[in-house]
Amino acid sequence: MQQTVLITGGTGTIGRRLTQLLQAHGFQVSLLSHSAKTIPGLTVYKWDVESGELDLTAIQTADYIIHLAGEGIADGRWTDSRKEKILNSRTQSTDLLAKALAENDHHVKAFVGASAIGFYGGDTGDRPLTETSEGGSDFLAQVVRAWERSEMQIAALGIRTVLLRTGVVLTNEGGALPKIAQPIRLGAGAPIGSGQQYVAWIHLDDMCRMYLQALTDSSWQGIYNAVAPNPVTNETLTRAIAEVLHSPLLLPNIPAFTIKLLYGEMGIVVTGGNYVLNKRIADETTFTYQYTDLKTALENLLM
């Protein structure tokens, strides 16, 4: 019998690719969406996080839940109202799912929730970070800590719960890579700040395959750093993109203060960095990466 995976945030970059992967592996996919739009091949259920409304059929027909919903971290300056949206979009949506699961009959076997390496703080230098490392204290760290706390409500219900602390997802459909690649194509690319801040990256396809294995392999439980094995510096990433695009880097590094002037506090997303290691995935799972080499990943995405 075909099993159903319910995805929140399913129309985002990860959600779209993950839907394709799940369908290719024989799963039926349904989505929770703020609008009751029709998407060919998918069942779409409506929810309204702010009003606490959710079509319970979505929960009652699901075998698994993947929770990706959340306001984009780097979509605008961090005003007070935007900070509130970033936090509430994650915690309130999870609270709503937990309430629905607690109060209604269902047969959900596993819950896989998004998290972020922002847990460790916006800028942790070259200090190696594993899943047991302490969290940071800045805005991003506070958001992720509250986010994970709300997701662990699901585990408290006796449902196997996996949280994937996601690094910088490399994809040609959005996120960091096109923003870095476009000026390089135009001959105006350069590393940011010192260029020595670390980028803990992962190819989109590996990210989605990780979600799939976390769903189907019952040995996965708890928190994992969802990053490739080899973090690189911002300068290394920038130069690798330029090499793949056969475009020289002619300009000096972009000063960090310029980024802070443009983006305010949100600038830490690009001026900061984290040396995050995939220790639990390497030591405790059978997951195999398709892309452990940065250049190979970039060639796949940019050529």
Descriptive account of the structure:
The protein has helices at 13-24, 56-60, 80-103, 139-156, 176-185, 204-216, 234-245, 256-263, 268-271, 279-284, 294-302, and strands spanning 4-8, 28-33, 43-48, 53-54, 64-67, 110-116, 128-129, 160-166, 168-170, 198-199, 201-203, 222-226, 232-233, 275-276. With 303 residues, the chain is an alpha/beta fold. The protein has one domain: Rossmann fold. The strands form four sheets. An eight-stranded mixed beta sheet has the order 4-3-2-1-5-6-8-12, sandwiched between helices. Strands 7-14 form a two-stranded parallel sheet. Helix 3 packs parallel to helix 4.
Q: Shape, please?
A: globular
The computed structural class is alpha/beta
CATH architecture: 3-Layer(aba) Sandwich
CATH C-level label: Alpha Beta
Chain-averaged pLDDT: 95
Domains, number: 1
Low-confidence stretches: none
What is the percentage of strand-forming residues?
15-25%
Strand order of the largest sheet: 4-3-2-1-5-6-8-12
Give a nutshell description of this structure.
The protein is α/β, with parallel strands linked by helices and 303 residues long.
Quick tags:
303 residues, alpha/beta, Rossmann fold, two-stranded parallel sheet, 11 helices, 40% helix
